Amino acid sequence: MDILTVMIESPITRIMAVVIGIIGGITAIFARAFPNPVLVQRIALGALVIVGLFLMLSLFGWIGVLIALVFMIIFGLALILIIFIRQWKKIVSFMEKATNDSAITQCVDAPLIVGQASTSPDSPCDPEKVYQYSAERYGIGYNLLDVSCDLRYDGSATIKRKVTVEAFSRMNGLETSLLIPETFEPGAWSEQNRVNVASASQPYIVSLGTYKRTGNKQFVQIVFAPELAERKSLVFTLTEDLFPGIFAMGLSHKDTDKLLEKDYFGWNIDRPTHALRLQVLFPKRVKPKVFGTLVQYSVAFSDIQTARYHYEEQKGLNDPVLSESENGRYSLSLDVKHPMVGLTYTLFWLPISKKDEIPDEYSPYEIGLQNLLAEFDEHHTERATVLHLAQWLTQNIAGARLHGDSDFFRTERAESLRKLDKYAFSACKCSFQDLCR
Fold first, then answer.
1. Average pLDDT over residues 47-68
2. Which residues of 126-148 are buried (b: 16+ CB within 10 A; e: fewer)?
């Protein structure tokens, strides 16, 4: 007689079927009357234990029941030990965090100056601990905020920020301010390539979301897909293209005197940030002679002007670094470890005038145009034509400097020089090339 026949004919199996039915009915009643999943799980577990004991009894007799009870006791003790270890780790972690938070709170209550902050990892005022504490409390932190301003000859610029985001809570995006002064709908931004966002971390996709304008500031939502989980990080870039005339470039002495004392590019810290890097890239042939840094309190309301400086924080900063790249462009950079929320860190330089530009192969043409225009006063009948040719050559030079010289620029420039030669000879009996010396 096989085991299946024994189980079917056994009275114990019949009793077990009745017990299972009763327990199942009780469980269903409890699930409806008391929607407590934990209680239902315990009742179901109890039913499973009873079924197992009946099964062991029917197959192996009381010895099988005893063996099952021994295994259940061992399993229960192991489960209790695992639960105890987990709870103990939570208690220890909670006590350490409470002690550390208490010490860091005392440190945060006092001004934290970069130049005066303790660098000891055992110190509660260690900037690393302060950043970690602030980012966890805030729910998000910037491990690295790398912002560059690429200037062009016409005063326009491309602003690119590369942000390494650390999430200390689940997040599907964040809000950030924009630098473009004009009001655009998000669709118009994409069409004109004024604002672009991209992800540098797989498998995340980063896109522009809701747009909002408050006072003189514009804000946009950066959307993450999929959602950024807690303790995860991603890197994204946001690029803005500013129109010409934002920055002062290639000015005359009169224009320079009319402007402010400084031209500048700065960044407001609005979230816990581990490291900030500011960089200003100047066009070719432009080298700033006077430059420095400023630290200001951020403006709480856009309609209120303020010039409050944080001199103590500024003392702790390193001097900005002026360097020259392989392609002949100068850059001004500033690195700040643990910048403070609510402060604006700024690179400034004197407005760029013609005298600050380093001569290149096109500079003699500009000298020649100045000398030629001096021969045609306002009452000269051909002054308008010469001005038109001068503008044509100036635009050609600007294009060659910006995009690199090409056959198109060389052909157009040769035609301009040929026509300018005619007016140079009529005015001073010399070639235009002679006026360029």
1. 69
2. bbebbbbbbbbeeebbbbebbbb
* b (16+ CB within 10 A) / e for 388-401: ebbeebeebbbbbb
> Dihedral of CA 30/32/38/43: which sign?
positive
**What is the separation of C-alpha 80 from the centre of its chain, rounded to a whole number of angstroms?**
46
**Domain extent listing, the chain:** 3-60, 130-356, 363-435
Structure tokens at 249: 């470039």
Distance of CA 328 to the CA centre of its chain: 28
* CA 256/CA 351 separation, integer angstroms: 7
The hierarchical CATH code for the domain 130-356 is: 2.60.40
**H/E stretch holding 29:** helix 11-33
Between CA 413 and CA 436 the distance in angstroms is 14
pTM to 2 decimals? 0.61
pLDDT per position as a tens digit, 175-220: 998 887 655 555 554 445 578 999 999 899 999 988 887 777 788 8
Question: Tokens 């924080």, residue?
Answer: 313
| Dist CA 16 CA 10 (whole Å) | 10
Decide: 200 and 236 in contact? Cβ < 8 Å: yes
Does 106 score more than 60 pLDDT?
no
Residues 6+ apart with CB under 8 A from 79: none
Query: CB of 309 within 8 A of CB of 380?
Result: no
Check if the beta carbon of residue 346 is closer than 8 Å to that of residue 264.
yes
3-state SS of the chain: helix, strand, coil percent to 5?
Answer: 45, 25, 30
Q: Which of 180-184, 296-300, 399-403 comes out lowest in average pLDDT? A: 180-184
**Between 214 and 278, residue with greater pLDDT:** 278
Residue 14: which pLDDT band, with cuts at 50, 70 and 90? low
CA angle 167, 169, 170 (to 5 degrees): 90
